[in-house]
Amino acid sequence: MNYYNVHDATINVLGDFPCAGQETKQFTLVKDDFNIITHSELYGKRCVLYSFLSVDMPVCAESVREFNRLAYRMKDIEVVCISVDTPFTLNRFCQREGLDYITTASCFSSSEFSLDFGVKIDNPMFSGFTARAVLCLNEHGLITHSQIIKDINHPPDYDSVISALCPAID
Prior knowledge:
The chain is α+β, with helices and mostly antiparallel strands.
C-alpha cells in the first residue's frame, strides 16, 4: 500500500503500484471523444500513462499541459493522461488549452483501473479519484519506469520520464 500526502495529512492509496520490469495490466478507458482505448492499442509504441486526480486541480492541469509539451517534442511517444474526469470535461479542457499531442482518457466507468494500477485513493473526501502517477512503457507493454507522486502539491519528475523514454546510449 502506498500513501499520499494531502494538505499535511497522509492517506492510503490502494492496490499494487506496478514497478519497472513488470508488464502493464489490461485496461479499458473512455477517451475524450467517447471512443475506447485499451492496453493492446499501445503495443508497438513507447508510451506514458499518467494518472491524475482532475484537470480542475492546478497542479494536475499544469502537468497535463507539460505532458502535451513533452509529446510535442517527442513525436514518437504516445502519452495517455488518465483521470476520473468525464470525457466531456477532458475534451473541453484540451480544446480550451490547445492540447493536441496527448490522449486524455477517463476511468470514470472503469472502477477496476485505479485498484489494478495501485492508484485508488482511500479517503472519503477523495473517493473515486486516482493518485498522480506515471508509468513509462516500451513497445512490448513492459514498464520501464514508474513513479507515484507522493504529495498532491508536487508535479511528476519529468526528467526521470524523459530518461526512461530516451535512455542514454553507451
